[in-house]
């Protein structure tokens, strides 16, 4: 029998390593946010307080998700997905234009970004599809058509906002889940060739001018340092200035002299790296590495296929956010609007990442439940 509460046995298996790693990242994020916003006056100078409120709210929501057996979500998978797609459509009706994009739905002083929550909703829908599909042998591209459509609909809506970074996360999460379904090598090669052939079309007819400029600057960073390349250049300068042990808390020059834009949202890592140096940066990267590897462990120990895909999907969200954000601030990837999980400021982002942690906790705590072992993906 599936229980809807946290049974004593499940409570006994509370995943402390997962909780401690996520909590440490969140605490370091608030400490860093206080330093990053110390150069501002007014509301922005108090963003760290808002971040604490969002962590509390996200923690409460996460607690609710942990209390409800994750297997109940399987029955609601497509309904949750449909709600997410509907909220993305509402963005084009109610969202206000902000710097050329429409991403947030506002209710008075409260606003949220549906595309962030859609990542979790997509993982739940993909987990339901693979749970219902009894196939255990290698899959072809045709077998993955439905999951691809489930991914493509929200990805295209998000790309239309426009938000290339978040749309890319949806696609990458799908690809990571698909990679673990034992796709046949012939299908993998066909997919790679198709993507390579479509690349010129995507460049000429899908990407906007400012998105192309970011790629161009990434390839030739010296060409436009004062405009499009400003963020990436000063990000690398800040990380380099940190040296081995950093300049000290609230003593990073790139932040304190306001050379580093968006240091509270997309570029908090350079602030941290300049203040705490290589040693602090390695600590933060190790925490993310542990969180991602622990997600794989949780997925491998899940007692059903739905839980296994939830573990892989939530781990993929955390991994790709951390990888892309760290990559763009270090100069090994183009600059895109992707936050650092539990570290960057943002109510929707923080809440979404805590939902991922909560779902991982849910699967981990119930891995000892008496249910049939999962088939291989």
Structure description:
- Pfam families: FTSW_RODA_SPOVE.
- This is Cell wall polymerase.
- It is a multi-pass membrane protein.
- One of its GO terms (biological process) is peptidoglycan biosynthetic process.
- This protein is mainly α and 377 residues long.
- It has helices at residues 8-12, 16-36, 47-67, 71-75, 77-94, 114-132, 145-159, 164-179, 185-206, 209-219, 230-241, 253-256, 268-301, 305-330, 347-365; strands at 105-107, 110-112.
- Strands 1-2 form a two-stranded antiparallel ribbon.
- Strand 1 (105-107) and strand 2 (110-112) form a beta hairpin.
- Helix 8 packs across helix 14.
- It is globular and about 60 Å long.
- The model is unreliable at 370-376 (pLDDT under 50).
Question: What is the gist of this entry?
Answer:
The chain has 15 helices and two strands. The chain has 377 residues and is mainly α.
What is this structure's SSE topology?
Layout: H1 8-12, H2 16-36, H3 47-67, H4 71-75, H5 77-94, E1 105-107, E2 110-112, H6 114-132, H7 145-159, H8 164-179, H9 185-206, H10 209-219, H11 230-241, H12 253-256, H13 268-301, H14 305-330, H15 347-365
Antiparallel strand pairs: 1-2
